[in-house]
Amino acid sequence: MSTKHDSTQEPTAPAATGFSPGFAALGLEASLLATLDALGYEEPTPIQREAIPPLLAGKDLLGQAATGTGKTAAFALPLLQRIAHGVKQRPAALVLVPTRELAIQVGEAVQRYGKELRISVLALYGGQAISPQFHALKRGVDVVVATPGRALDHIRRQTLKLAHVQTVVLDEADEMLDMGFADDLDAILLQTPATKQTALFSATMPPRIKSIAHRHLKHPVEITIAKEPVKAGTAPKVQQTAYVVARQHRGAALARILDVAGPKSALVFCRTRVEVDEVTAMLNGRGRRAEAIHGGMSQQQRDRVMNAFRSGQTELLVATDVAARGLDIPHVSHVINFDLPSSAEVYVHRIGRTGRAGREGVAITILDPREQRLLRSIEIHTKSKVIVAQVPTVADLRATRLERTKTAVKEILDAGELEPFLAVAEALAGAGRPIEVAAAAMKLIHRAQGGEQSEQEIPGPLSRAPEPYRPQPRSAPYQAGRHQPGDRPGRLIMRPGTRPPAGRTTQSAGEPGMARLYVGAGRESGIRPGDLVGAIANEAKVNAGVIGAIEIEERFSIVDVPAGMAKGILEALSRSRIKGRKVPVRVFKD
Ligand code: AMP
User: Fold this and answer.
1) Which of 35, 41, 171 for mutating ligand 1's site (highest number of atoms within 8 Å of CB)?
2) Ligand 1 centre and the CA of 335: distance in Å?
3) Phi, psi dihedral angles at 463 (to 5 degrees)
4) Which amino acid residue places its CA nearest to atom 17 of ligand 1?
5) Do β-strands 239-244 and 2-4 pair in parallel, antiparallel, or remain unpaired?
6) Phi first, then psi: what are they for 185, rounded to 5°?
7) Is the peptide bond before 148 cis (omega within 30 degrees of 0)?
8) Does the Cβ of 73 fall within 6 Å of ligand 1?
9) Whose CA is nearest to atom 8 of ligand 1?
10) Whose CA is nearest to atom 20 of ligand 1?
11) Under 8 Å between Cβ of 273 and 294
12) Domain over 469-495+506-590 is classified CATH 3.30.70.330
């Protein structure tokens, strides 16, 4: 049987409450739906929609899908649901992947998806000491994610026994064959029961993949996603650029790209609700006026956000695909994909928000090195070219900022009306250094516009270990939300056990006109900066962009707000709930 994803399928309606109807319709049980909800997934990706039902029904599957399409969840969710209710003999599932990095990544993903079901997962890969692996295998694990070489090693030592395996997944099978694992795969599969379910995923389907599928899969359901080219003329004519950045640097890359592009109005797309909140908080922390919009918000909240965006009060709208789908969004100069969408259809839909009615549009995509294949397939399906560029360097950023200062000065010069200043300039230039006087004035403007902020280079995709963490300068406006190399992109770093600094180190609080508010809930209650930004923006009806530094401590948080708004914000917060509960709020005193 061969199924094909139907791109005309009606999108799932955003659910303000409850779990995603899209995932529920696939037959997933409540605990998995709760996990997906907590991860902020709003609807299944095409491969998930196609693969989950047959896999849940115990069928074998041959799926053509690249990294970035959501294929890990497509095989992990059914696998978890089946083994949670199957015979409890371990290991119940084996996932084979080509590399150590993937073993770790897929292992973590399966663990994340199986958290509610309390399923244990172990990643086995070469280069890792073998004896801790013996102990872990001896204790027993439900799912083993392994590279073929290391799996075979354990099988030979009889430390990995596959007699009770119910499901085997061959992930990135073409890469495994490219790496010379064909014989190992055959040898491993020989050790598994004939009754098992097998799923094979591969980005490409050359004859040798077909042959391995023929040998090991029983009447597989075949799935090919987005085979059909997008209809001619559907893909808008916009300048498309992609930046390849390791996942942990995505947040920093986004901030840098925005700093250089300087869009007046942009739409930033993320895959999940959680990411939307994190990115919004990160951007606001860097002084941008950004607002989030996703399926977890009420209609009233969405209307407020949209009105602020339409009126220009908000410059960046950070959205999930589901939330953006039903919206009448005005023309934006830039569409930014914080990550590559899971299919060509979604990509076309996203970038169609710019370059409308003959106007110029720019689409920018940030992607992980592993997602380059998906990008190529999107190019083929959309019949368009995406230029892959380097993330702007610190020198690029400085040059752009200087150019902006120059343009600003030129505009003032052209507009004239310089009378009160001419006398001052003449007096200063009297000493015979008119050019230096002009340069000093430029420096002053440049500094006032933040042009002298120190920045760090963002490593390219081939960079090895992350740079050592260097604290940001005193002017960093976002204490809790600093981006730390090596951490998750846009992830907000909390410093456990630290107390608020006695002397303020953040720009906003140190500045006249800002007040510090104490909020009696912190990390312990699961508070994140996005919760505080959301509560203040929604309850006190203020633009999120005015909120300054946020510090999240163990039991409390400190938020900087404009002093003139502090009273109103305190009143609004004291009437409302944060994360479902009332919390004490007051002006903070060190
Ligand atoms: P994969 O292709 O499995 O490597 O997944 C790519 C990325 O998409 C991962 O970061 C997943 O967390 C994310 N993802 C997978 N499925 C969904 C979904 N239905 N909605 C949003 N994000 C998803």
Assistant:
1) 41
2) 20
3) -60, 145
4) 70
5) unpaired
6) -60, -45
7) no
8) yes
9) 70
10) 41
11) yes
12) yes
- Strand spans (E) along 31-181: 61-64, 93-96, 121-124, 143-146, 167-170
* 181 alpha-carbon distance from chain centroid: 32
Q: 572 C-alpha to center of ligand 1: Å?
A: 37
Ligand 1 lined by 81 (C-beta under 6 Å)? no
Q: Which of 99, 320, 342, 368 has the most ligand 1 atoms within 8 A of CB, as the residue to mutate?
A: 342
Low-confidence ranges of the chain (pLDDT < 70): 1-18, 226-236, 462-512, 545, 590
- In angstroms, rounded to a whole number, what is the distance separating the alpha carbons of residues 259 and 182? 47
How much is the CA Rg of the chain, to the nearest whole Å? 27
User: Which residues make up the CATH 3.30.70.330 domain(s) of the chain?
Assistant: 469-495+506-590
Nearest CA, atom 22, ligand 1? 271
Q: Does residue 71 line the site of ligand 1, with CB under 6 A?
A: yes
pLDDT at 234: 55
CATH number of 3-224: 3.40.50.300
CB-based contact 298:273 (threshold 8 Å)? no
Return residue ranges of the chain for CATH 3.40.50.300: 3-224, 239-389
CA 484 from centre of chain? 15
Query: If we measure between CA atoms, which residue out of 238, 257, 272, 283 comes closest to residue 342?
Result: 272
User: Residues 27-80: pLDDT tens digits?
Assistant: 999 999 999 999 999 999 999 999 999 999 999 999 999 999 999 999 999 999
Q: Of 45, 108, 277, which is best to mutate to test ligand 1, by the most ligand atoms within 8 angstroms of its C-beta?
A: 45
For domain 239-389, give the CATH number.
3.40.50.300
What gap in Å lies between CA 330 and CA 543, rounded to an integer?
19
Ligand 1 atom with minimal separation from the 66 CA: 2
Angle of helix 30-39 relative to helix 71-84, nearest 10 degrees, comes to 150
Residue 235: per-residue pLDDT: 55
